[in-house]
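Chain particulars:
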Amino acid sequence: MSKLSFKIVGLSLGIFLSFTFSLCVLFGLMIQGSEMHRFLEVFLPGFTWISYRSFLYGLSLSFIYGLYTALVFVPVYNRLNKFSSSKKYKEHV
């Protein structure tokens, strides 16, 4: 198995979470009474419903959350992948 690249995983997760944030905002604007603003205000500290500035803030914070997830996940995955492919691990299994 190959090692994961922080750059690729980080950009992928960042774009995915930014896209998901945009869909949540669109859903909240289209469906009145959906309480989407409360959900976003809980998970994105400092976010307020809705202006261009807060939308850009939420978009950038979502991207940063994706980068943070990759920062934690990629080294853990690579370490476990290296360990599981080692000879010592295969002898114990």
